[in-house]
Amino acid sequence: xxxxxxxxxxxxxxxxxxxxxxxxxxxxxxxxxxxxxxxxxxxxxxxxxxxxxxxxxxxxxxxxxxxxxxxxxxxxxxxxxxxxxxxxxxxxxxxxxxxxxxxxxxxxxxxxxxxxxxxxxxxxx
Length: 125
Description:
This protein is mostly beta strands. The protein has a single domain (4-117), classed as Thrombin, subunit H (Beta Barrel), CATH 2.40.10. It is 9% helix and 44% strand. The chain has one helix at 107-117; strands spanning 4-7, 10-13, 19-20, 23-28, 35-42, 46-51, 60-66, 75-85, 95-101. A six-stranded antiparallel beta barrel has the order 4-5-6-9-8-7. A three-stranded antiparallel β-sheet has the order 1-2-3, with no helix packed on it. It is globular, with a radius of gyration of 14 Å.
């Protein structure tokens, strides 16, 4: 049985409790320049994201996460903190970053958790 589901630009997986390849817009809090990229995986606590610029650990970023495709995309907005970042640029031209939600109980993050719950089955006990 194929455990992968395709939804617009996102590839969603039940295996490993993760959602992958969601489109994001990233805006560093101290810069007017935003970047479009994607996640590698996502969980209720945070995301692994790909960015063309490497951000320092503890840096705060504003993310818009696109949960559905245009023309009327469902999005959430959240502030995240960089917890780790690749030292070297990947072969794909991106630095990987691990980010955590700064306010994990916000309404926006709860919308994201609800979204994850529609694709990820709880692990069997």
